[in-house]
């Protein structure tokens, strides 16, 4: 069994569903003590219960990542419970509004940016403050293949995820000399409630087949495949990796 995160204390945002839940479970299996953060208490409690049933250690901290005070409290709770913060997977996110750019209201735009972009900034700011006190750590941010290329009616999402890549590189450059590595994972289409909600929208009825066909591996991914990359990036096995964009996308960006 891979115990590459043995004893590390790790925050996972959006840990109540999909990729975040899979990552929280995988971090735990790899030996980490996990702080599951989400606005969805029921989903997050389910993740924590699954970890505890396996005999491992996790806590839930209700957090809206778009609210800096709540993020500060999340990091304080992690420090209170485990004494230090070694890693973080900043993954909470919202799907696009599904409107072309000129139809987006300011409120719709802000809703997506506040979670997908501001949320990653707030998380990194407070996580890095904690990591600086204990000599370093590792952060992984969830961007998307749509941070690199676009699809229709998703400019709000694409913009937010491209922003995450810039934030990731900026932090990697600022904190490399203080032993904090910061990387981004770029999932292709992954079978989670987010994608299930998108393809259940009648205007996207034939989308799932198109999505499959656009991935050279001929299928969409499963959350555990993203989680495996996240565990590696958080672990000391990735000790010379920082500022990287790791596509875990079935080849989507290679076309
Ligand atoms: N599923 C995909 O195909 C795919 C592809 C590329 C990138 N992503 C990204 O991966 C991440 C996870 O997506 P997923 O597919 O697992 O989606 P999901 O909807 O299954 O999970 C997202 C989780 O984030 C939580 N969340 C939403 N807003 C929050 C907030 N303000 N504060 C705290 N938690 C919040 C939700 O409650 C949920 O538990 C997102 O950032 C998403 O943009 C997903």
TrEMBL record:
Keywords: Oxidoreductase. GO terms for molecular function: oxidoreductase activity. It comes from the Bacteria. NCBIfam families: PRK07231.1. PANTHER family: DEHYDROGENASES, SHORT CHAIN, ESTRADIOL 17-BETA-DEHYDROGENASE 8-RELATED. Belongs to the short-chain dehydrogenases/reductases (SDR) family. This is 3-oxoacyl-ACP reductase.
């Amino acid at each position: 069994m891979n115990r590459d995160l043995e004893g590390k204390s790790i925050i996972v945002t959006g840990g109540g569903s999909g990729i975040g839940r899979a990552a929280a479970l995988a971090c735990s299996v790899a030996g980490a003590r996990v702080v599951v953060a989400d606005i969805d208490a029921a989903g997050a409690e389910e993740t924590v219960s699954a970890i505890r049933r396996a005999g491992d250690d996790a806590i839930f901290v209700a957090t809206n990542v778009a609210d800096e005070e709540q993020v500060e409290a999340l990091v304080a709770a992690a420090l209170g419970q485990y004494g230090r913060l070694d890693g973080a997977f900043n993954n909470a996110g919202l799907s696009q509004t599904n409107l072309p750019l000129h139809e987006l209201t300011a409120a719709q735009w802000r809703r997506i940016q506040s979670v997908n972009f501001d949320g990653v900034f707030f998380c990194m700011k407070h996580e890095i403050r904690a990591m600086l006190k204990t000599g370093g750590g590792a952060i992984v941010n969830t961007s998307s293949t749509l941070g690199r290329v676009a699809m229709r009616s998703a400019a709000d999402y694409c913009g937010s995820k491209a922003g995450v890549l810039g934030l990731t590189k900026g932090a990697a450059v600022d904190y490399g000399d203080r032993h904090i590595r910061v990387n981004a994972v770029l999932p292709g289409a992954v079978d989670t409630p987010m994608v299930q909600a998108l393809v259940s929208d009648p205007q996207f009825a034939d989308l799932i087949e198109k999505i499959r066909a656009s991935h050279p591996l001929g299928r969409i991914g499963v959350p555990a495949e993203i989680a495996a990359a996240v565990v590696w990036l958080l672990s000391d096995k990735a000790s010379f990796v920082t500022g990287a964009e790791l596509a875990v996308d079935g080849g989507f960006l290679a076309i």
